[in-house]
Amino acid sequence: MLQRLSTLIGTFAVANVLANPAPAPAAAPDLRDAIIKRANDSCTFSGTDGWLAVNVSKTACSTIVLSALTVPGGKTLNLEGLNNGTTVIFQGNTTFGYSEWAGPLFSVSGNNIIVKGDPGSSLDGKGALYWDGKGGSRGKIKPKFFRANNLTDSILDSITITNAPKNCFSLNFISNLTIINPTIDDRAGDALGKNTDGFNINNANGILITGAKVWNQDDCVAINSGSNIVFENGFCSGGHGLSIGSVGLEENPPFVSNVTFQDSIMEKSQQSIRIKTVTDAVGAVDNILYKNITMSGGDRYGIIVMQSYNGVDGEPTNGVSITNFVLQNITGSVLPEAVNVYIECGLGTCRDWSWEGVSITGGQSAENSTLHCQNVPEGISC
């Protein structure tokens, strides 16, 4: 038997009608219309009111199917606080209306959660309505897209995001998360989109991202704080590469360790491999491996390490150590105006590096450009 949703819906009644009654309030939306089917604790939500119905009744369903939802501007499709073991399935095209606000458009939290996209499904942030060439901190206020906070022992499977106004996946306070075959397609923002980071990772322990395809205009991956993180079998195009940092921003612990980027293709990225630490921050970056990375079409750098972020270029500071930085089989080319490799380390902060099979061609050496490498670790060429 289908269960009635009278516990979810307020009804309005007027016992006595005055001679000159005030206009009656508009009826609340009947959320029963947004729930297509419910059986064995599996609930399907759709249409323009489905986002509100699922926000209210999410803990009553062990499987939540989101079918062609339309979420109004300024509202979050909120799946935080799900019951342990809940499965969420996106079907069709989920769209998010326009509103200048911080977001997020979608949020999720819980333990042993599976969020998956059925074949052909997508989440469309209508980015073209926001993109103004001014990025995330100027111009129109742009919402972040997909926020996962306090997500543990969980899986994100085959999620497709299109037209993100800015940051796509924001992963915060994560433990043991696997992300399988995600797609981020912001190619429509190549002219005016900025700060459309693929994956921003903060305060995380244990993330595997495998099979990602990312077209965007900022970092493909940015690990600001966390440990035990792997990105593999990925494709990144048009953005700012595979980045450690910014390490040392005030809102995050200034520590990153045990990170592997491997078996991935970088195309038309501003730079493909980057470590950046914030001026005057104190912290540590340790045990970072990039392996089997190929690059093409980069227009600034192939590989860059800089320790003056948010400070004065060319004046690195000494507060964040970068140790056990390993490159293996890093090959490809950059554009002629780019620099193949640039290293700007603080005095004594960069040590115990090992680079093997690194061959970046097509651009300039740092010493033949306006840049000059500083405090390069023993055995490393710049």
Automatic annotation (TrEMBL):
Protein name as catalogued: endo-polygalacturonase
Molecular functions per Gene Ontology: polygalacturonase activity
Signal peptide: 1-19
Catalytic activity, as annotated: (1,4-alpha-D-galacturonosyl)n+m + H2O = (1,4-alpha-D-galacturonosyl)n + (1,4-alpha-D-galacturonosyl)m
Enzyme class: hydrolase
Location(s) in or outside the cell: Secreted
Enzyme active site: H240
The species this protein was found in: Venturia inaequalis (Apple scab fungus)
Source taxon at top rank: Eukaryota
